[in-house]
Specification:
- The protein is an alpha/beta fold.
- It has 8 helices and 7 strands; from the N terminus they run βαβαβαβαβαβαααβ.
- It has a 7-stranded parallel beta sheet, sandwiched between helices.
- α1 links the parallel β1 and β2.
- The chain is globular and about 50 Å long.
Length: 251
């Protein structure tokens, strides 16, 4: 799968799935735009991308802020002059119970990052994607359709369900303009999310909760993202691809 000279934005690419995707796109010849907030981690990913021959663009941005979302597109076009692929990967969750006094504070934070930001970034990217007949891959979750731990991370579930509907609606609209939109919904993936968020479970427990008794690694999801972004998937749009080790089968 060659992405030679394609320009790819990957949000949340300082670690985890986003980092794996950014590095793999670079390995396949793409110019990668790394987006995140942790400068040290982004530098590490950037160095790995550059080792394959092309210097990536690193954009430090808080995507909960509209002006910083706009900066991602502006700096990409300024550097490369075009955009071929948008990977809306950045996401987060906070444990918050609907009965808690501060529920709405956590809800708004999660929705801004997980849903509003990709919606706005997509809106800004569309004119450039139309020119290149590019595509979008939105990283959702099996949480969009399956209820587990719902009482503690309800906002996350709602945000991912919204992202799925947004993706399908956008896919329908953009199909007439030659732009594809698809969804990747992982189950449990071994990233640093439990290290950076108050944990409500453990990796061992998550692995045991899947029929295959394993967790996915970020590279597995990155490989699926690259397939959907490639010409091999030129007939696929508005589709959701689940990679969850059978997790939803028992939910």
């Amino acid at each position: 799968m060659s992405f030679d000279n394609k320009v790819v934005i990957v949000t949340g690419s300082s670690s985890g799935i986003g980092a794996a995707a950014a590095i793999t796109f670079a390995k396949e010849g793409a110019y990668v735009v790394i987006v995140g907030r942790n400068e040290e981690k982004m530098k590490n990913v950037s160095n790995k991308c550059e080792s394959f021959g092309k210097k990536p663009l690193v954009v430090k941005a808080d995507i909960s802020k509209d002006d910083e979302v706009k900066k991602i597109i502006d700096e990409t076009i300024k550097r490369f002059g075009k955009l071929d692929i948008l990977i809306n990967n950045a996401g987060m969750f906070v444990p918050n119970d609907i009965t808690s006094d501060n529920f709405m504070e956590g809800y708004d934070r999660v929705m801004n990052i997980n849903l509003r930001a990709p919606v706005y970034l997509t809106h800004l990217a569309i004119p450039y994607l139309i020119k290149t007949k590019g595509n979008i891959v939105n990283i959702s979750s099996v949480a969009a359709t399956s209820i587990f731990f719902a009482s503690s991370i309800l906002s996350y579930f709602v945000s991912k369900a919204g992202l799925n509907h947004f993706s399908r609606g956008t896919a329908l609209k953009l199909a007439e303009l030659g732009v594809r939109v698809n969804i990747v919904s992982p189950g449990p993936v071994r990233t640093d999310i439990l290290d950076t968020t108050s944990a409500f479970t453990t990796w061992d427990n998550l692995a045991e909760s899947t029929p295959l008794k394993r967790l996915s690694e970020p590279q597995e999801i990155a490989d699926l993202i690259l397939f959907l972004a490639s010409e091999k998937a030129k007939g696929i749009t508005g589709s959701e691809f689940i990679s969850d080790n059978g997790f939803v089968l028992e939910k």
